Structure to design on (124 residues):
């Protein structure tokens, strides 16, 4: 499931977000472009982590954990700063931050504690 989220869901979400905010680059300038570039790079790392997990590569679990931490940090940055356009209503930002942090924490905990992950990747 995590592999599908990293390799399909995250790229689709970032792609849709990018298509929505491309016009905002003219208004928001460099900050919007840099954050969009950061999100694209994190998404690329997510795809790499998903492929590494599927192919059971050494270091795949550590890569996936690192990608989840970087993804969480990127999302929180996007949510709490005014640099990237959003359609969130007033007071919704803390909810988005909390849900994102819970989502990423659950996946990191799964990679760290799952017996299946331990059996599949004994050299985690």
């Amino acid at each position: 499931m995590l592999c599908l989220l990293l390799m399909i869901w995250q790229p689709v979400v970032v792609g849709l977000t990018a298509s929505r905010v491309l016009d905002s680059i003219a208004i928001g300038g460099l900050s919007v472009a840099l954050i969009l570039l950061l999100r694209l790079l994190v998404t690329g790392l997510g795809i790499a982590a998903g492929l590494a997990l599927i192919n059971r590569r050494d270091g795949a679990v550590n890569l996936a954990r690192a990608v989840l931490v970087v993804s969480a940090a990127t999302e929180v940055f996007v949510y709490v700063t005014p640099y990237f356009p959003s359609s969130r209503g007033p007071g919704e930002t803390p909810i988005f931050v909390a849900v994102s942090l819970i989502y990423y924490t659950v996946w990191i905990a799964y990679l760290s504690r799952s017996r299946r992950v331990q059996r599949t990747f004994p050299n985690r």
Q: What stands out?
A: Helices lie at 2-21, 24-28, 30-54, 60-80, 93-113, 115-120. The longest helix spans residues 30-54. Residues 20 and 78 are 15 Å apart (CA to CA).
